[in-house]
Amino acid sequence: MSQLASPGQLRMSLIRWALFVIPTIMFLGFLSGTMSGSGENNRWFQELIRPEAQPPGWAFGVVWPILYFMTGLAFAIILNARGAPQRGLAIGLFLTQLLLNLFWSPLFFGQHQVTNAFYLIILIFLTALGTTLVFGRIRKAAAWLMVPYLAWLSFATILNYQIDQLNPDAERLYVPAASEPIGG
Predict the structure, then answer these.
(1) Which residues does 164 contact at the CB level (< 8 Å), separation at least 6?
(2) In this predicted structure, what is the pLDDT of residue 1?
């Protein structure tokens, strides 16, 4: 017998990885955004001057789950590639870029550190690019699943830069709490 696992067993292993990894990554992305108050409802963000290329708020709620799904599937493919050279490096790079990604929303929306978030997103892009290149040496499909993420990161980097340029005092911008009469 030359095979340790049948094609069906390998496929089931990938499915098991995907069923664990994809929801975990999507949940972590959701948690990061929710805990940091990211999005259009963030009062500090509402006060910023935003670039003309800024998509409507709902677009981020559509794009990010798709990207987290695709990158999660790419990661599951790599996790399933047991014995592949550079698999450990690929796993380490992916987890590094994911952790950096999850820290961006708290840095930008939570701590209002627009300039530092810009430098962080550049680091995220470079780490994600390295991840994609290593994924490509292991499984081409995994690398291709990362390409939309890289494209979005490029766009998000430009937006972050433009917001930083349009709002040089964003870190010090004070937004008073919403005031509603008691009872209503």
Answers:
(1) 114, 115, 118, 170
(2) 43
Domains of the chain: 7-171 (1.20.1260.100)
pTM (predicted TM-score): 0.87
* Torsion angle of the four alpha carbons 68, 72, 75, 81, in this order, in degrees rounded to the nearest 10: -160
Averaged pLDDT, 11-32: 90
Which of 58, 62, 64 minimizes the C-alpha distance to 27? Answer: 64
Lookup: tokens for 15: 């499915």
Closest CA to 33 of 150, 184, 156, 131: 156
Helix or strand or coil: residue 56?
A: coil
Taking the C-alpha atoms of residue 112 and residue 176, their distance in angstroms, rounded to an integer, is 14
